[in-house]
Amino acid sequence: LEAKEEFSHKTLAMDVMRPRRSDPPLSVLTQDSMTVEDVETLITETSYSGFPVVVSHESQRLVGFALRRDLTISIENARRRQDGIVSTSRVFFTEYTPPQAPSSPAPLKLRSVMDLSPFTVTDHTPMEIVVDIFRKLGLRQCLVTHNGRLLGIITKKDILKHMAQMANRDPDSILFN
Ligand code: ADP
User: Fold this and answer.
1) ipTM attached to this prediction
2) What's the CA gap between 12 and 46, in Å, rounded?
């Protein structure tokens, strides 16, 4: 068997990552264009453990990763402290917060709850390498990019499901995966 052929049969990160082709797009946060209400809506309408933060929907450049739990706690605290944070407050994951117009509410700075260097792999990374990285680094999730654009996410559970699927296949096909 040629090495090249063997490679073409390998499962890649893009085959395991979510969303699948037919799924709705990845739920992401943008670094400086969402309101507190937008973030709260995302949190209540989805059940994901975390959300990638991107520069903008257009660029899909990855900035970091924020856990649902940390977002919820930070927003609750900010609202409770009543330091001017309301539904229409703009949320910033950026280092710099531009001065707000006098008429607009106080901004909510959430950069400190964001993981600034979430683990990423490219869409063509073979799954055996991804599995190895998850094991060695004890990852909970990993983001998948292509040319610097965010494409998807792989969680530890996605990996476990993938491995269970592989184990259920007939031995011949496993040989070539
Ligand atoms: P787990 O995989 O442990 O259940 P999650 O609840 O975070 O963790 O994810 C559930 C499923 O949704 C997984 O298949 C994962 O790949 C996918 N997923 C996780 N986060 C997001 C997100 N922000 N947007 C879209 N899909 C996501």
Assistant:
1) 0.98
2) 27
